[in-house]
# Entry
Amino acid sequence: MYGLTEFEENELSVKIENIVASIDGISKTFDLNRIFAEVKGTEYDKKKFPGLVYRVKDPKAAFLIFSSGKINCTGARSLADVKRACDTLIEDLKKVGYIPIGPKIIVQNVVASADLKAVINLNEVAGALIDDIEYEPEQFPGMVYRLRDMHIVVLIFGSGRLVITGAKNTESVNKAARRVHEKLSSLGLI
# Structure
């Protein structure tokens, strides 16, 4: 129904930490007061935040629902979980009278972690990758490595851990992790 593919782990031990997605096609507007009054698992305080928070426990995810009809999902760890959580949301919104007009999930950001299984000398990496990195160890213990052609940012830590952000799909996460591994290997840094 949503055209999503499942994530497969690779040899770098890549783990999806969070998927942020927007959901379109449920309604052009929402009555947040009505949803808050009739749907369990919601939080709404217009004075603190303009949207309604709807939490799903299984799979664990949270939705931010706005009166404009916009919905954002965060906290899911797989594409299948995003879809299952969205199905739960849709079922609860149907009970309040919202009939989806062709729901569509659009992944905005996939955040993942990976382990290169090697200690990394970030000073050496900084010397080798001058144009593509930001490294200020006095301010932040990791290095910011921009894969500009992929529009992905990878945080590299001396422990060999990576945090990958900005990807739109899980395939790009894997590709980014492999690229960092290959680049550091080719330079003799791991």
User: Anything to note?
Assistant: The chain has a mean pLDDT of 91. Residues 24 and 104 are 5 Å apart (CA to CA). Helices lie at 32-38, 79-95, 122-128, 170-186.
